[in-house]
């Protein structure tokens, strides 16, 4: 089903932040964009867990996304659909699968229904700390869409 244009008033900055925090707390999947050393783009959906500071994802070590995130240590994430989107630019910390505390891995598995620790394929954890976050629904929300800059929420 397509969602057409609406004539809704733009949300306040505070409302957008609350909506973004709700999405981070309740959504389970995120689009993860990365690029190889030579600039070839790659985009995949991955399950995530948000701990209030960073998103945790897991992907095979030798997958394009795993290689790209480990090499560049940056990513862009997309939550939602095109008429209600949150875009996050983040710094990536790479963790070997056994380096994460047991309770953190258990939380990820319970939330997402996926436990990469139990698989034969080698996986890594990728902890993504937001540096810049933007959210908008339509053109009337483009002004003021930046909610976080340099890792700090704006007023």
Topology:
Elements: H1 13-26, E1 29-35, E2 41-47, E3 49-50, E4 55-60, H2 64-72, E5 74-81, E6 84-96, H3 102-112, E7 123-136, E8 146-149, E9 152-153
Antiparallel strand pairs: 1-2, 1-5, 3-4, 4-7, 5-6, 6-7, 7-8, 8-9
Explain this structure to me?
This protein is α+β, with helices and mostly antiparallel strands and 155 residues long. The protein has one domain (13-147): Roll (Pnp Oxidase, Chain A), CATH 2.30.110. 22% of the residues lie in helices and 41% in strands. Strands 1, 2, 3, 4, 5, 6, 7, 8 and 9 form a nine-stranded antiparallel beta sheet that branches. The longest helix has 14 residues, at 13-26. The N and C termini lie far apart (35 Å).
